[in-house]
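The following record pairs a protein chain with its ligand, acetyl coenzyme *A.
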Amino acid sequence: MERKDKRKIKITGTGFYVPDKVLTNFDLEKMVNTSDEWIFTRTGIKERRIASKDQATSDLAIEASKLTLKDAGLKVKDIDLIITATSTPDTIFPSTACWIQKGLGADIIPAFDISAGCTGFLYGMILAESMILNGQHKRILLVGGEALTKVTNWKNRNTCILFGDAAGAAILEESHDDSGMLSYYWKADGNLGDLLYQPAGGTRIPASTQSLAQDLHCLQMKGNEVFKHAVKRMEEAALEVLERAGLKKEDIDFLIPHQANKRIIEAIGRRLRVPPEKVYSNIHKYGNVSVASIPICLHELSQEGKLKKGDIVLMDAFGAGFTWAAVTYRW
Ligand code: ACO
């Protein structure tokens, strides 16, 4: 689908926040039957951050949002919509976005959550584009936050080694120059929902002593199945989004894949023929932080001075749902 509207949105600030507590692979060796060697070779993860007992997703997201507003040179009164992407909300209701609004002391502006697993940040960018280009909103705070370790089964070595807590954010506005979002592609397939999900705590299996005893409030995943779908769908999304922007694989200056597993990240890089030094990865420091991974990568890349004006960045994500999406962006 060729886009008719040539106007674009752009990112005018980024930021992120991770909790102080570090959990290393060596710490995990003392908790479950695993090893630093297994975790690092199978996932690329060395350590991850853990939210404290009194830190909920919004607490991480509020810190990330404040840093992002500062990066953009804005005050909280300058934003007119808050979109939060999360799979680990503070409460089922109100939305985490409303808790963030309260915590930031924002005006009475709209605030809502989107739930699209690890793809949530890109879903949020795509949604923000139409809201800005429709003229409904001028400056959107998009913040992705997760406290996944609160829904982690710490007895299950298949999952507890993978996830971390973090929040990352961006300010989105209409672009008045060449930079900005060039194309997007987004999909979902609910038929595969139970390959990666949190079974209890919603209305399908409400909280009960039995659901707690069976650890059904914790994330469950068929890791190797998810792995295969992630590689296939992320490649599909990347190729589609390049075509929609009229770009070729060789045009990619930086590939930012969702940080789920180093082997997935490398596989996508190989399939798109992007050299390893142009495939950004920070999974060794944070693990899989779901929606927070792409904005954290963006912020680190820009802070490290690696992104030059005009660079083509391809962001690519896959997550629970299943959902998958990609975006091309001219820096
Ligand atoms: N330490 C040691 N051994 C382990 C561990 C561990 N932590 N975990 C599993 N194993 C064992 C298994 O028990 C199995 O042993 P067996 O052969 O005796 O049965 C063996 O290792 C192989 O297990 P697999 O699950 O096949 O291992 P795999 O190579 O697939 O790696 C992993 C597992 C890391 C989970 C991988 O499948 C993965 O990263 N999947 C993708 C996850 C993902 O992309 N999530 C994305 C979205 S996340 C979101 O939306 C919130």
